Amino acid sequence: IKLKAELESALHNNEFKPYYQPCVDRNGLIMGAEALIRWIKNDKIIPPSEFISQLEQSELIIKVEDKFIESVVSFISQTKKEGIPPYPIAINLSIKSLNSKDLFERVILKIKQNKIDTRYLKFEIVERAFLEKFEHLNKLILRFREKGISFSVDDFGTGYSSLSYLAKLPVDFLKIDMSFIRALSDEKTRNIVRSIIFLAKELNIQTIAEGVETKEQFDILKEMGCSCFQGYLFYRPMPESDFKSLLMER
Ligand code: G
Ligand code: G
Ligand code: MN
Ligand code: NA
């Protein structure tokens, strides 16, 4: 268990850093990336599974995510200045941040200060968040979308919501949880995934498959009509400098 004081000092010492995991299209070409938080502590890389839930128990998560958004927005602005081709970057938002009072204003201010195009910022929300405060979230997402910022439902299929619930979500992308991709060799799972992709298409929502690790998984998903792919088969999450080099090669 990490002490709150330790997490606070990590925040003040700028020890939370974004790693970037590109996602690709059907041809394997980069079409964007997800920013994933890491705690860099004395050259050790601590994964979010070891600290996010502790952060979420207090309001500290709001400050950490606020600073994280700042880092990502400033990275986008930096690449633009250096003439590196821009790609949309998706940031995960906790339920606490989504419910924090001035999230919209804070994000828009950062975008203005860094002079970036809103098209290059996306947010990911876990399915579960919609169950808690649907009306609030619905309004919030619509405000962001009016500004050109798009949203994904993360870990889709692991929450409690049914497929019919999807029709009510004002989102642009749906990320199919890794657990389904892992089980694609099972016929029932394949049918579920096919239905998710079909229904999303009917609703004009793009699908992103998470945790794609094998060529077989990639082929099955492509055949089903999935449009974006993320996973170790293509790229692992990488530090900002590596991500920048990767984009510069292109
Ligand atoms: O990067 P990794 O696969 O270890 O991420 C583990 C989990 O942590 C994922 O569910 C991911 O969505 C979550 N995560 C990564 N960065 C953030 C963040 O900045 N905020 C929140 N709330 N979750 C994050
Ligand atoms: O829940 P969320 O989708 O935000 O988090 C993605 C998590 O999955 C990150 O922690 C990332 O490191 C991890 N991840 C990404 N691609 C793969 C993969 O192909 N295999 C596995 N096992 N984990 C992955
Ligand atoms: Mn995510
Ligand atoms: Na996920």
From TrEMBL:
Range of the intact protein held here: 769 to 1018 of 1024
Protein species of origin: Hippea maritima (strain ATCC 700847 / DSM 10411 / MH2)
What does UniProt list as this organism's lineage?
Bacteria, Pseudomonadati, Campylobacterota, Desulfurellia, Desulfurellales
Instruction: Outline the extent of the EAL domain.
Output: 1-250
Tell me the protein's name: Diguanylate cyclase/phosphodiesterase with PAS/PAC and GAF sensor(S)
Q: Per its UniProt entry, which superkingdom is the organism in?
A: Bacteria
